[in-house]
Amino acid sequence: MLKRVLCAGVLACGLSAAPAQAAVIFSDNFNTENGGTPALNYFGFANFTITEGSVDLIGTGPGGTSFNLLPGNGLYVDLDGSTNNAGLMTADSIVLGAGSYNFAFDLAGSQRGSAETVTVQLLANGIPFGVSSIYNRNSADPFSTESISFAILGAPINFQFRFQNGGNDNIGAILDNVTLSSVPEPASIMLLGLAAAGFAARRRARQ
């Protein structure tokens, strides 16, 4: 798993170690989209808007099977749809307050002979922050998890993320299992531990 750390504006550097007690805020594996039925040039996502082109909902579900390139993973998204124009896939806005967060997703190669490049951006109040993250996948690459950590220092923001495949040949990298989690601050946990240790020491001293 590759983890990246971003900082900008009201956001500060995240931490590279993922704490064990992360709380999931957003999770989408696409399996319930379209009643579990694959669809080429799909625009009806529950949590995303597709602009500037199209993406395909592929794989297998209770409603059918189409281009099941990575069996055992349900439905997933081909980030370059069937219109010769890769779509921009933008998540609906999520309000986030001050704290540390981890954004993660699974990305695989096209499985159809082409190397692919995917650009991922995070947005605060509609404005991208940090440097765009670029991910390269060879055709046969299986799903692997990518992760970006960030922290919000100030007032709540409207947070979004978006994906876009490079190229326009109807063959894209494959996306699945998108999550956003809040994570406890390690520094706060350390201070809590020190406070507990000091309290225990005072109790021993009294005894």
Mean pLDDT: 86
- What's the total helix number? 1
- Reported by name, the CATH topology is Jelly Rolls
Name the helicity range.
Answer: 10-25%
β content, as a range? Answer: over 45%
Count of folded domains? 1
Written account of the structure:
It is a single chain. By secondary structure, this protein is mostly beta strands. It has a single domain (2-206), classed as Jelly Rolls (Sandwich). The chain contains one helix and 15 strands, in the order βββββββββββββββα. The chain has one helix at residues 186-206; strands at 2-5, 11-13, 23-28, 48-51, 56-61, 64-66, 75-78, 88-91, 94-96, 99-108, 116-124, 127-137, 144-152, 157-165, 174-183. The longest helix has 21 residues, at 186-206. The protein is globular, with a radius of gyration of 20 Å. The chain starts with a strand and ends with a helix. Mean pLDDT is 86; it is low at 1-5, 7-19 and 188-205.
